[in-house]
Every structure is written in C-alpha cells, then in structure tokens.
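batch job 7 of whatever, protein = Amidohydrolase-related domain-containing protein
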Amino acid sequence: MIVDCHVNIWDDEHVLPHYVSGTAMARHGTIGTVADMDTVYAAMGGVDKAILFSLRYHDSAGIDGNDEVTARAVAKYPDKFIGFAAVDPRRPDAMDLLVHAVEDLHLKGVKFGPIYNGVSLLDPRMVPVYAYCVKHNLPLTMHMGTTFAAGTPIQYGKPTDVDEIARRYPDLKMIMAHLAHPWAEECIVICRKNANVYTEVSAIFYRPWQFWNSLIAAQEYRITERNKIFWGTDFPFATVAESIEALQTVNRFVEGTPMPRVSQETIDHILYSNPLDHWWHGGFPG
C-alpha cells in the first residue's frame, strides 16, 4: 500500500497572481497552478490513498483555498481521498471554521503553515487548535522548513518549536512536513525523542544531495524503522512517479564511492509507510 500523505488541492479561483510569480523561485519542472479535485484524482492514480488539504496562504504564497473544496473532493472520491482542514489562526473565525470542517465536513486532520501564516507554534492563538486536535483525535500536519515566499518569518519554519509543543501536548500527533528542510537533522532528532512527532519527505527529492544526506541521517538515527518518517509528493509541486523514482534511486550520486548507502529497507520503510496506522490514536477512524 502506498499513501501520499501530502497533497494540495484548490480551485482555479483560489490562485492569486503572486502565487504564479513566486513559484518561479521554487522549482522549475512539474510545478503547476492546476490542482482541482479531478486533476488531483488523476495525478494520484499511482497511490492507494491520498491525504489532501487546501491552503489559506493568501498573503504569502498566494493560495486562498477553503475546506469546502477538500470536502467536495473527499465526497466524490471517498475511496482515494482523506481530507484535512486548513487553519489560519490569525482569523477571528479560525476556530469556527475548524469546528465546521471537522464536525460538519468530517475532515480527519489539520494542516497549518506557521511560516506562511506568520504565526509561531508557540503563539497563544494556537492553544485552542491544539486542544481541539487532542479532543477530537486529529493529527496536525505542519509545513516546517523554508519557503519560496518573500516576507515570511523564517524562524517559524524551524523545527525546534515542535519539540516544545510536543512536550506540552504529549497526546497531540504532530507531523513535520518536508523534513523541515534545510533543518532535516534537527527534525529527525526531534522525531526520535518525541513519541508523538513524525515527519515526511514530500518535496525534498529535487535537491538530491540534501535528500540523500537527510535520508542517511534518518537511517543513522533509526527513525525509519520506528515508523516515524512517511512518503508524500506535495502535488502539484511534484508528481507521484518522479517522487517514487527519486526515492528508489537516491543512491545514484554515490555509486562507485565509499559513501554510505540508503538501504533498501529504509527506502521501503518510507515508500510503504502507512500514516493511517500511526497518526491517529488507535489507527485511522474511518
């Protein structure tokens, strides 16, 4: 079973002009602006399940999505999609929207981007979000690491705040997206020491040297064998096929050298990891 744990969804009207200009700084290749539910469904043909969410990053990355687009996709393709709510704690109605997303739209987790929303994980506005997640058994996926978007507070993307929140809320399942690049080793050691913290590898492979180094560190700290690191694409920023190929060929740059190898066991642990067994207390609620 292959689960893509990080898939973005939005309708065309959610894409603002500065998203198109800003992504030019992120990556050339498969980045696109089209991520409606039918496009996403077609793109996810190579996986069994996909966890998807829209983004409320209107003033930073230029996507102003909503939870309704996520819920409609899940309703149309329930055998493929699992939906997460998006939270922007700056909004006065943030908790009302979250309650609606979970209790009316039946979304199963929460997505938050501290660097994009300009809100630290330690900000008091996050306290009701954490409490609600714990009460309703909702995993919290966080964009950790850097971004292409100008004007974002880089310190909020660093993983050290996750360590503090993990100790304050030991029953909160937290997932650091993108291995918190470029702070992957900090991300890995925080995952290792906190039973409630996980990470994933979406959108890392197109920096191949960083990708290889990060997976070697994950292997040496043995978090892969403990089911702490998961696989995803970050579609439309990468496709399923290239994300799988990059993981399976991660050692290609060190062939013929004495450098260590990412083992096949590590590769398989990541590719066939199943968040549905781990991110919810008692397993995915269905």
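notes: The mean pLDDT is 94.
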